[in-house]
Amino acid sequence: MNIPSQITTLLIGIVLTLVSLWYGQNHGLLPVQASQEAPLIDGLFNLMMTISTGLFLIVQGVLIIAAFKFRHRPGDDTDGPPVEGNIPLEILWTAIPAVIVLSIAIYSFDVYDKIGGLNPMDHSVAHGTPTHQVARMPGAAMAATLADASETSETSENRNQEVQEAATQDPATDAVRDQSIPQQNDAPEFGVSSPRIGSTPDRQGKPPQFVVNVTGLQYAWLFTYPDSGVVSGELHVPVGRDVLLNISANDVLHAFWVPEYRLKQDAIPGRQSELRFTPSLIGEYSVICAELCGPYHGAMKTKVVAQTQTDFDAWLESQKVASSEGLNQAIALNAAEKSTADFLAPFVSDMGIDAKAIQQIHPDHAHHPL
Amino acid sequence: MTQAQLQETANLPAHSPEPGGTNWRTYFTFSTDHKVIGIQYLVTTFFFYLVGGALATAVRTELATPESDFVSREVYNGLFTVHATVMIFLWIVPAVTGGFGNFLVPLLIGARDMAFPRLNALAFWMIPPAGILLLCSFFVGSPGAGWTSYPPLSLTYDKAGEAIWILSVLVLGTSSIMAAVNFIVTIFMMRVPGMTLNRMPLFCWAMLATSALALLGTPVLAGALILLAFDLIVGTAFFNPTGGGDPVVYQHMFWFYSHPAVYIMILPVFGMISEILPVHARKPIFGYKAIAYSSIAISFLGLIVWAHHMFTSGTPPWLRMFFMINTMIIAVPTGIKVFSWLATIWGGKLRLNSAMLFAMGFISMFVIGGISGVMVASVPFDIHVHDTYFIVAHIHYVLFGGSVFGMYAGLYHWFPKMTGR
Ligand SMILES: [Cu+2]
Ligand SMILES: [Cu+2]
Fold first, then answer.
1. Are A320 and A327 in contact (CB under 8 A)?
2. Could you tell me if A266 and A128 lie in one domain?
3. Among residues B271, B159, B150, which one has the least CA distance to residue B210?
């Protein structure tokens, strides 16, 4: 065969590009996209997968071709050509990866901005939302407390404390969270040290439509709905609504992860962190604890139920009755004095492990934190 | 460095035993001979490699069925914690630096021995007791908070097991600092006359970059572990949130060492691959200077990327962006190395012996680890895959497909020189 090598190279290049482009879109490695943030992150991953496939094939291809083409032939004791380098070529393979990673960095930066990472949940929530705007919101109770706090917050540098206080304004969260853990201050200079994926540009300056306080504890997630005082072992969210989770933990580190939402945030005792997202697909998905939190870490799972507003309202109504009794009890008895097992007993049916299991896990740790 | 020198190094006749020297008993003594110490390191760490492999096998056995039916949950957590600790602190780090470094560096730069032979022997002899101590933790209640040992979990776990883990890693870290000092002094002060830095074999460049990382990073890990020990044993609250401590500070201190640790484990292997490929491809290394300087660049960048392990933790957004960009830039010097290796074998006369096959296998596996490394550096994507098997796979491509394949290549390549057979 006498095909000129340039043409062979060109053909190989075209085939590589096509294969990479195809695989980058059809790898099938990610679960269904159930939030408005998920397609953005998947687009980024698909691009990285396309480039990676190309690079992977080039490197493996060169290795395999070299292993056959440049194999030592018996009887040939000569050395290879004494090439010690090639400056233009070296500049090329320094420049191309540099351009590639810079583009990926810029794209990542943009996606991070779009899912709200760079717009810290704007000061509009903490720092004075006009009350008339708040009043129309379904999350009025929550937002009102935030707005109240805003009078003092202009001078206050401790936003983490504000969120913590706001989050526990409602008795439900107050009962669920371990109040004996002091809250970390935020770094004054940058406004936040607590992590958050916050508002997208179109949400910027708007308070979240819907707030849920999330508390991680060995080995369960507890969700409290500040507007209604509902405490639940599974997260219910209305589809299409802008949801804000205030995440913290009572004992050790946990991580709130919903693979279908592509979002994860550590729950850190003594610190508030936030996730803001918009569920886009009706269905039930797993909430998985992604940070090793003890022997039963693998069992720390629950579900998020994304449903229509009507279904959600009905669910919330049904929970109100159930949990107000349990909660009053909890407050009357003072949650801090109850053992974890007793305290969790009302919620265990939602959590998939029973009180006995919890008791076994930390017999000595139940009565005093840590 | 020229090709002729390189081949000479590889083809030198095996060293003749020193008078009264290397009979087998020497290997059980406090020998100050760098070659004896190198072998001591390699044999000891290979033993711990087998132990770590057995622990991994136990982990996989448990995972064969969904039920918890092979070991208890506490022991399971202990298995993967000790597996990681053994593989990192008792196999790869001491084998690539203490083992190959001790054996090869003085030979490659023409020095009679390391700069501080007794310190060298001491650094080695700290390893067996620390390793045995770590394994003994299984008898008192294994440390089960993962090799990262994040508080508050590490403070709530079995106190004795966790204390043993801290002590063992502290001793191993001290040994690693001592070895790093030794390498830096040896490489700077004891090169044979006429060997300028730019003529130094590439493995020595890699050891220089590695030792700088070990020297700068390990003390920070030691600091974190000492504070953790105080929290654990005395009840202070450096990292314990119930007393106002901050667990995120531990994460920063831990990763300030433990990200560079990845480069401590892979840079010397890069160096070995750069020595092995030219010999078996019968062709000089392509782009000596680029490979040498990229080791230094990786070492420097490696110090300012640690918080990429904390993108879902308590890390503010602007800091996430800073660490994302730094991390991605590391792909550039790493890419230079990979492409230079490919160019080295391209057009050569490849002897496809075991050393060469492992070296090529190293490139093929490491490249997967490297590419997935760029992916997880991207903050939005990492927010999805962090703390999942994606990360587990990434690190095993780097450390097993990378470091361990590279060490096998090195073992096959230098076995004749080490044993005289
Ligand atoms: Cu958990
Ligand atoms: Cu890292």
1. no
2. yes
3. B271
CB-CB under 8 Å, B387 with A257: yes
pLDDT at B9: 44
Instruction: Tell whether B282 lies on the interface with A, counting CB pairs under 8 A.
Output: yes
Q: Which residue of B has its CA nearest to A263?
A: B384
Query: In chain B, what residues touch A109 (CB-CB under 8 Å)?
Result: 321, 324
HEC profile for B99-141? Answer: HHHHHHHHHHHCCCCCCCHHHHHHHHHCHHHHHHHHHHHHHHC
Taking a C-beta distance cutoff of 8 angstroms, is the pair B210, B263 a contact?
yes
Chain B residues within an 8 Å CB radius of A89: 343
Cβ within 8 Å, pair B371-A55: yes
Q: Is residue B222 part of a domain?
A: yes
Residues 21-40, chain A, touching B (beta carbon < 8 A): 40
Quote the pTM value: 0.85
Half-sphere exposure of B267 (CA within 13 A, CB side): 34
Contacts of B384 in chain A (CB under 8 A): 41, 45, 259, 262-264
Q: Helix, strand or coil for residue A284?
A: strand
- pLDDT value at position B27? 81
Of B335, B356, B97, give the one whose Cα is nearest residue B203: B97
Q: Which domain holds residue A40?
A: 5-65+94-114
Domain holding A206: CATH number?
2.60.40.420
What's the CA gap between B406 and B154, in Å, rounded? 33
| B349 and chain A in contact, CB less than 8 A | yes
Considering the domain architecture, whether residues B275 and B190 belong to the same structural domain is answered as no
Q: Which of B258, B289, B318 is the last residue of a domain?
A: B258
Domain assignment of residue B1, yes or no: no
Whether residue B242 is found in the same domain as residue B286: no
**B279 and B253 in one domain?**
no
Question: Which member of A101, A105, A295 has the closest CB to residue B73?
Answer: A295
Residue B411 lies in a domain: yes
Look at residues B217, B238, B258 and tell me which one is the last residue of a structural domain. Answer: B258
Establish if A72 belongs to a structural domain: no
- Is A108 in the same domain as A216? no
State residue A79's pLDDT score: 86
Element (H, E) at A256: strand A254-258
Say yes or no: B253 and B275 in one domain: no
Whether the CB of B14 is below 8 Å from some CB of chain A: the reply is no
Mutation site for A-interface testing, chosen from B232, B236, B242 by largest number of A Cβ within 10 Å? B242
Number of domains in chain B: 2
Q: Which residues of B touch A67 (CB under 8 A)?
A: 350, 352, 360
Q: Write down the ipTM of this complex.
A: 0.88
CA dist B131 and B45 (Å) reads 9
Q: What is chain B's pLDDT, residue by residue, as a tens digit (421 residues)? A: 444 444 444 444 444 444 444 677 778 888 889 999 999 999 999 999 999 999 999 999 999 998 888 998 889 999 999 999 999 999 999 999 999 999 999 999 999 999 999 999 999 999 999 999 999 988 888 888 999 999 899 998 778 889 999 999 999 999 999 999 999 999 999 999 989 889 999 999 999 999 999 999 999 999 999 999 999 999 898 999 888 888 999 999 999 999 999 999 999 999 999 999 999 999 999 999 999 999 999 999 999 999 999 999 878 888 889 999 999 999 999 999 999 999 999 989 999 999 999 999 999 999 999 999 999 999 999 999 999 999 999 999 999 999 999 999 999 999 998 888 7
Residue B84, min C-alpha distance to chain A (Å):
14
Tell if the CB–CB gap between B383 and A362 is shorter than 8 Å.
no
Chain A residues 93-152 with a CB less than 8 Å from chain B:
93-94, 97-98, 100-102, 104-105, 108-109, 111-112, 115, 117-118, 120
What is the Cα Rg of chain A in Å?
27
Answer yes or no: do B293 and B192 share one domain: no
Tell me the CA–centroid distance for residue A179 and ligand 2, in Å.
Answer: 34
A52 CB within 8 Å of a chain B CB: yes
Interface mutation vs chain B, best among A183, A291, A364, most B CBs within 10 Å: A291
Tell me which residues of chain A have a pLDDT lower than 70: 1-2, 119-169, 184-208, 322-370
Q: Are residues B243 and B301 in the same domain?
A: no
**What interhelical angle do A87-114 and B317-329 show, nearest 10?**
160
Domain for residue A76, yes or no? Answer: no
**Domain check: are B390 and B307 in the same one?**
yes
Residue B396 belongs to what domain range?
A: 269-421
Q: Answer left, alpha or beta for residue A205, where phi above 0 means left and psi between -120 and 50 means alpha.
A: left
